[in-house]
């Protein structure tokens, strides 16, 4: 009887605390840090490095991000990249996998993950837009083949660490990307916010401070310059994903390939030459935005009384 009581007491203690002695605040801190690492993996690895080739990552962070995404999202790199590239190629049309302009904001906000899973089954999308993504032994035999086993392993780890509350931690991790990426970025980022540039789509900057979603809040900037590794363009904007990339670059773990072009004014020329025209074309969005700001926005005509 004493042995049974001891086993029962140990089981109750494990359910309450897991194999650690973390308190509630420490568990909350772990959850926030873990979900933020997931956001960083999505914006740095999947989005900027893989989908847009804005930077090259050293194998160390690249493999870490792939492993972490396998544990915390179950997303396959080729699928995510292909869907995102198609979004840019078909933006705001009926072929856009997740545009609130054609599917409705409610649909994208509430069923964004379902839209993603449906498009991931489209073999034509993967074949046309999923090129130059990882295709090594790990990708073929683990990450892509057993995509949901990773999140199952994450559940076991959380339960072992925190006990029963670990299931809640796991649920938050599983919901983080569908809510922030599928909902906020794909939904609100094409529906509400401010615009620095009149890009040929409905993209908006949700917030000038890109922290919670790793810089993806600056969505209008991204759609204007999709191959830029830096998403902030104004002095008051902040892209935490870019701060991480600069840190990796200083450590020799990343190489930035492209950022937003910077306007450099030279001497006034009486006649525009080919270099002038090239500069205007390369910086057309910034030139037009500056021109509109200098001239002021014309007032809307008053309706007749």
List segments where confidence is low: pLDDT < 50 over at least 5 consecutive residues.
297-305
Distance between the termini: 90 Å
Order of helices and strands: HHEHHHHHHHHEHEHEHH
Q: Average pLDDT value?
A: 86
Q: State which percent range the strand residues make up.
A: under 5%
* Share in helix: 55-70%
- Count, helices: 14
User: Strand order, biggest sheet?
Assistant: 1-4
Structural class: mainly alpha
Instruction: Indicate how many domains the architecture comprises.
Output: 2
Shape: globular
Rg over alpha carbons: 23 Å
- Describe the largest sheet: 2 strands, antiparallel
Outline the structure in words.
59% of the residues lie in helices and 3% in strands. With 305 residues, it is mainly alpha-helical. It has two domains: 2-260, no CATH class; 264-297, no CATH class. Helix 1 packs across helix 9 (147-162), helix 3 packs across helix 9 and helix 4 (77-89) packs across helix 7 (123-129). The termini are far apart.
């Amino acid at each position: 009887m004493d042995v049974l009581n001891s086993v029962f007491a140990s089981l109750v203690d494990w359910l309450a605390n897991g194999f650690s002695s973390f308190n509630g605040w420490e568990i909350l801190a772990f959850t926030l840090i873990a979900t933020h690492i997931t956001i960083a993996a999505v914006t740095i690895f999947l989005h900027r490095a893989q989908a847009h080739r804005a930077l090259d990552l050293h194998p160390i962070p690249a493999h870490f991000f792939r492993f972490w995404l396998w544990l915390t999202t179950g997303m396959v790199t080729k699928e995510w990249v292909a869907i995102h590239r198609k979004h840019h190629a078909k933006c705001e049309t009926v072929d856009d996998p997740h545009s609130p302009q054609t599917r409705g904001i409610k649909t994208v906000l509430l069923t964004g993950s379902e839209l993603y899973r449906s498009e991931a089954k489209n073999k034509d999308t993967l074949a046309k837009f999923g090129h130059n993504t990882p295709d090594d032994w790990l990708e073929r035999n683990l990450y892509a083949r057993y995509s949901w086993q990773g999140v199952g392993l994450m559940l076991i780890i959380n339960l072992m660490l925190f006990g029963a509350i670990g299931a809640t931690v796991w649920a938050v991790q599983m919901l983080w990307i569908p809510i922030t990426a599928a909902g906020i970025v794909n939904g609100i980022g094409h529906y509400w916010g401010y615009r620095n540039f009149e890009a040929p789509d409905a993209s908006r900057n949700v917030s000038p401070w890109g922290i919670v979603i790793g810089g993806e809040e600056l969505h209008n900037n991204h759609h204007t310059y999709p191959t830029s590794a830096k998403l902030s363009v104004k002095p008051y904007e902040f892209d935490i994903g870019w701060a991480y990339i600069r840190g990796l670059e200083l450590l020799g773990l990343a190489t930035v390939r492209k950022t937003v072009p910077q306007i450099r004014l030279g001497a006034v020329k009486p006649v525009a030459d080919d270099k002038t025209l090239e500069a205007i074309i390369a910086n057309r969005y910034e030139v037009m935005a500056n021109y509109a700001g200098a001239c002021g926005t014309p007032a809307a005509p008053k309706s007749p009384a």
